[in-house]
């Protein structure tokens, strides 16, 4: 793709993310609909995960071995036992697959887990805010 094609694809792009299921073990679904078809470009979403949720690196490695997801986690060493108030933000680079029904649509899902928060009086819920993901396009059609 030439630069003009990428700019056209990025215009009017829609990005949505949903947390599926209930409880401490959920799936994060990220969907991207580009403004127009970006040809053979690869699409990824960079998601910042706050300390209240995490991706288990061992689970992610298993999913990748079975070709069920493509993702990179920063940092890659995570204390899955740590409570929210001792954890740090994580960055997940999630590579999206093209939706067979829509040439401009991409999606991917990854399991996420909630962390324990500090005990609080009078409430049974904790709020975890997810920022909007950044969409990255790679239109490098080389052999690399």
TrEMBL record:
It is a single-pass membrane protein. It holds the Pfam family PIG-X. Pathway: Glycolipid biosynthesis; glycosylphosphatidylinositol-anchor biosynthesis. The keyword Glycoprotein applies. SMART domains: PIG-X (SM00780). Keywords: Endoplasmic reticulum, Glycoprotein, GPI-anchor biosynthesis, Membrane, Transmembrane, Transmembrane helix. The keyword Cytoplasm does not apply. It is found in: Endoplasmic reticulum membrane. One of its GO terms (cellular component) is endoplasmic reticulum membrane. InterPro entries: PIG-X/PBN1, PIGX. One of its GO terms (biological process) is GPI anchor biosynthetic process. Its main location: endoplasmic reticulum. Belongs to the PIGX family. Stabilizing subunit of the glycosylphosphatidylinositol-mannosyltransferase I complex which catalyzes the transfer of the first mannose, via an alpha-1,4 bond from a dolichol-phosphate-mannose (Dol-P-Man) to the glucosaminyl acyl phosphatidylinositol (GlcN-(acyl)PI) intermediate to generate alpha-D-Man-(1->4)-alpha-D-GlcN-(1->6)-(1-radyl,2-acyl-sn-glycero-3-phospho)-2-acyl-inositol and participates in the sixth step of the glycosylphosphatidylinositol-anchor biosynthesis. Probably acts by stabilizing the mannosyltransferase PIGM. This is Phosphatidylinositol-glycan biosynthesis class X protein.
């Amino acid at each position: 793709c030439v630069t003009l094609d990428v700019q056209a694809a990025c215009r009017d792009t829609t990005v949505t993310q949903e947390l599926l299921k209930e409880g401490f073990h959920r799936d994060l679904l990220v969907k991207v609909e580009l403004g127009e078809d970006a040809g053979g470009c690869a699409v990824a979403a960079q998601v910042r995960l706050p300390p209240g949720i995490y991706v288990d690196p061992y689970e992610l490695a298993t999913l990748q071995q079975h070709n069920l997801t493509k993702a990179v986690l920063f940092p890659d060493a995570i204390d899955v036992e740590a409570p929210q108030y001792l954890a740090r933000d994580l960055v997940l680079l999630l590579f999206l697959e093209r939706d067979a029904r829509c040439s401009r649509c991409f999606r991917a899902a990854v399991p996420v887990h909630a962390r324990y928060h500090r005990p609080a009086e009078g409430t049974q819920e904790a709020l975890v805010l997810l920022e909007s993901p950044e969409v990255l396009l790679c239109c490098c059609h080389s052999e690399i």
